[in-house]
Amino acid sequence: MSGDRPLAGRHAVVTGGGRGIGFAIACRLGALGASLTLVGRDRARLDDAIQRVPAGTACDVQACDVADAAAVRATFDAIARAGHAVAILVNNAGLARSAKLADTDDALWHEMLTVNLTGAFNCTRAALPALVAVPVARIVNVASTAGLVGYPYVTAYCAAKHGLVGFTRALAQELATTRVTVNAVCPGYTDTDIVAAAVDNIVRRTGRSPEAAREVLASRNPQQRLVLEVAWEAVEDGGVTAEQ
């Protein structure tokens, strides 16, 4: 393990790793030396992502819906058969849809909870035997500021992300005597496909311009702008640079 590649020899699984925050996380982990498995529902997107990770990063992909417990178990079985001892699990897969509570049907409620909360449970449960078997392991749950405060018109999403924060706190206590740490990060509104879809929804429902819709979302971030998605690229000297 070298100073500029402190994660060399460790394997990371990133769900929702084909785009957005998940892909940026995966690239950063790869730049720090980790080998990667990117998990997502869209195999074509994953195959494209694998071409864009930092040069020299060992990376494979697994097409899987994290809301499907059986598919998740099969995915982690395949990762083990490939000889990977999972040391880092990033539960990033998520989905956001908005509606007034009166317009939130059973399907929307179920989708928000299964993807954003049950998906993390499914992946963590499947990965845990491997995680506790390595000398040091990390679980990182990508929650949201919606897991800390409430936002209008996204009650189902907020409920799921609050649940993910509670899941993180409880599991951290449960694993406190092991070498596995459990943490959550709670990003604000980030310039990704999910926010682009939210902008489209605001435009459709309110008639605002796309620029005005983005300003509405940006105003909810402390810095009064969207968080910029970071794309990590390998450079010739083997380091990385962040492009925003």
Would you give an account of this structure?
This protein has 244 residues and is an alpha/beta fold. Helices cover 43% and strands 17% of the residues. Strand 4 (86-91), helix 4 (106-133) and strand 5 form a beta-alpha-beta unit. The longest helix is centred in the middle third of the chain and has 28 residues, at 106-133.
Q: How much strand content do the residues show?
A: 15-25%
Instruction: List how many beta strands DSSP finds.
Output: 8
Fraction in helix = 40-55%
Shape: globular
State the end-to-end CA separation: 29 Å
Structural class: alpha/beta
Note the main attributes of this structure.
alpha/beta; six-stranded parallel β-sheet; two-stranded antiparallel ribbon; globular
Question: What is the element layout, followed by pairings?
Answer:
Elements: E1 11-15, H1 20-31, E2 35-40, H2 43-50, E3 59-63, H3 69-81, E4 86-91, H4 106-133, E5 137-142, H5 155-174, E6 180-185, H6 193-206, H7 210-218, E7 231-234, E8 240-243
Parallel strand pairs: 1-2, 1-4, 2-3, 4-5, 5-6
Antiparallel strand pairs: 7-8
Helix pairs in contact: 3-4, 4-5, 6-7
